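Thread: Newbie trying to understand structure tokens

Hi all, I'm a second-year student working on a class project, and my supervisor (Dr. K.) asked me to get a predicted structure for one chain before our next meeting. I've only ever worked with sequences, so writing a 3D structure as a token string is new to me. If someone could post the tokens and maybe explain what I'm looking at, I'd be very grateful. Here's the chain:
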Amino acid sequence: MEVFSGRSSPTWTVDTRSPVYDRLSRLLGRARPTRMLETLGYRGFEVEVRDPLGQRRYMTVGAGSSPALELLLLNSSPQPLEGAVRQTVMDSIRRTNTPIEPVSLELGYFNDLDDAPVCVLPTFDPMLWNRHPTVRLNNCYNYATQRQTNTFAQPGRATGLKYTKPVDASDVIFATIRDGFMPVPYFHWGTCVIALTVWPGVDYHYYRLDNNMLWSHKTGKNYVRNTDNSGQLISDPRTADRGQYVVFAGYFLNHPLAIVD
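---
Reply by user tm_fold:
Sure, no problem. This is what the structure looks like when written as tokens:
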């Protein structure tokens, strides 16, 4: 991934054991090389492909030229990328007007998501969550993902590898992905989406999109609400008053086959 100037840019290998290998191979097989701009910041991907005979083919995927392919390349890294770097790439993809196909990442203990049923946008109904003992046993992750596990769910715990402390945005992002929630660069009506924000080094917080196209959330053991820290309705958590949760880590597609615990 071409992104740095002074430091060496991130490189990694996607082998046949990777859960995204087949899908990435199909997209690269159909893709044409696109020009990589000579700018500061995220410039795109330089991909080396090897055929069964070991012959090498090189191609460039310029920033913003193929959002679906760029998103899959971004998420093919076997190691978490730095939060600021990942956010830069996501912002670049988000600025494009090209429709983006949701990426199916088979990370963690869940099945192929391509043909699975779609999550239904929830109705803002606080009483489903504000009654006792439910309100005390479920947190923001439970609420955003629409899963009342009564376990005060933690990202990654259901799939065997929870995020580590101090809380890092990239670590929580990958824990969310491992649980089965697919990163998407933006949200629109009809998609069941959650959003992740992070108080650097301290904590994380999730929001969910309701069927009125406003967002709601639940803070720890407290009651559900649909307003931000300034008391305003939330049209987009990325621009809402989030207090100390200053890092907006991205949107994720909710899915019935994701696992939360």
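A couple of things are worth pointing out once you decode it. Residues 183 and 252 are 4 Å apart (CA to CA). Confidence is low (pLDDT under 50) at residues 97-117. Feel free to ask follow-ups in this thread.
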